[in-house]
Amino acid sequence: MNRATANLLLLITGATWGIGFVAQSTAMEAIGPILFTGVRFLAAALAVLPLAILEARRAGKPVVPGVPMLRRYVLLGLLLFLSLSTQQIGLLTTSVTNSGFLTGLYVVITPFLGVALWRVWPHPVVWPAALLTLGGIYLLSGGALTGLTAGDWWTILCAFLWACHVQYLGRVAGAARPLQLACTQFFICAIIGIGLAPLVEPVGFDLVAGAMGEILFAGVVSGGIAFTLQAIAQRHTTAPQAAIFMSSEALFAAFFGALLLGERMGLLGLAGCLLIFTAMLLVELLPMMRRRDPSKA
């Protein structure tokens, strides 16, 4: 798989997460954020499990990863749980507008983490592209943020943790079978969420039943399918580029909000979409042009 195809898969991932954001938001009317996160990823793990078993049979290796790789999967599952549960907690006390913008901070945080953790410097175009993306998300949110609430701070923490997940996944994905990786981290996330939920919030089958539609969509589609696409695609692209393409979830969330919920996008939102697409084109095209420049040979 070449980098262009991988980035296209990440764009599809962003679109899937965008519509999934609607389900995540409405689910909070019926169920707590920790239980929702746990059950959601249990559904995701069960959806991916048959594919992971088929992948293992074709590879001629056991389904269960070795101890060193399992430790990496556990850390990935923990980061996945922490990032998405903090986002869900944030949605309880902040607006969707603020949540969308603040979650998008991971686009800027991801390359900084790459430099801080791995001493990996991205292509120079990533820096202005990250700023363009951040500006686009800001305009997409309406260009106005109120004072930071507790939910806003939870969402800022989500952005940092998600950037950590993106970076670490980029380090692990190349040495792992993608479906095994996805399925294992989903099960770990589910175990943590379902085990922790009774300690911090109400639990019950009635709560799960009340949000079953959102759980299945967020789990199977925007969880099982989209996160698996992410795990596959990140083997063939860089973490900073992945962050920018996946940030298109804000754009698609606005689109599906208009389509499904009757929301309308103003001029600021349209300008934000333009900035995001410009950033993605810069990240994709400029490195390719540089490689093909005969003077660089």
Automatic annotation (TrEMBL):
<dbReference type="Pfam" id="PF00892">
    <property type="entry name" value="EamA"/>
</dbReference>
<feature type="transmembrane region" description="Helical">
    <location>
        <begin position="33"/>
        <end position="53"/>
    </location>
</feature>
<feature type="transmembrane region" description="Helical">
    <location>
        <begin position="73"/>
        <end position="93"/>
    </location>
</feature>
<keyword id="KW-0472">Membrane</keyword>
<protein>
    <submittedName>
        <fullName>DMT family transporter</fullName>
    </submittedName>
</protein>
<feature type="transmembrane region" description="Helical">
    <location>
        <begin position="153"/>
        <end position="170"/>
    </location>
</feature>
<keyword id="KW-0812">Transmembrane</keyword>
<feature type="transmembrane region" description="Helical">
    <location>
        <begin position="207"/>
        <end position="229"/>
    </location>
</feature>
<feature type="domain" description="EamA">
    <location>
        <begin position="6"/>
        <end position="141"/>
    </location>
</feature>
<dbReference type="InterPro" id="IPR000620">
    <property type="entry name" value="EamA_dom"/>
</dbReference>
<feature type="transmembrane region" description="Helical">
    <location>
        <begin position="125"/>
        <end position="147"/>
    </location>
</feature>
<dbReference type="InterPro" id="IPR037185">
    <property type="entry name" value="EmrE-like"/>
</dbReference>
<feature type="transmembrane region" description="Helical">
    <location>
        <begin position="99"/>
        <end position="118"/>
    </location>
</feature>
<keyword id="KW-1003">Cell membrane</keyword>
<feature type="transmembrane region" description="Helical">
    <location>
        <begin position="182"/>
        <end position="201"/>
    </location>
</feature>
<feature type="transmembrane region" description="Helical">
    <location>
        <begin position="267"/>
        <end position="286"/>
    </location>
</feature>
<dbReference type="InterPro" id="IPR051258">
    <property type="entry name" value="Diverse_Substrate_Transporter"/>
</dbReference>
<feature type="transmembrane region" description="Helical">
    <location>
        <begin position="241"/>
        <end position="261"/>
    </location>
</feature>
<keyword id="KW-1133">Transmembrane helix</keyword>
<dbReference type="GO" id="GO:0005886">
    <property type="term" value="C:plasma membrane"/>
</dbReference>
<feature type="domain" description="EamA">
    <location>
        <begin position="150"/>
        <end position="283"/>
    </location>
</feature>
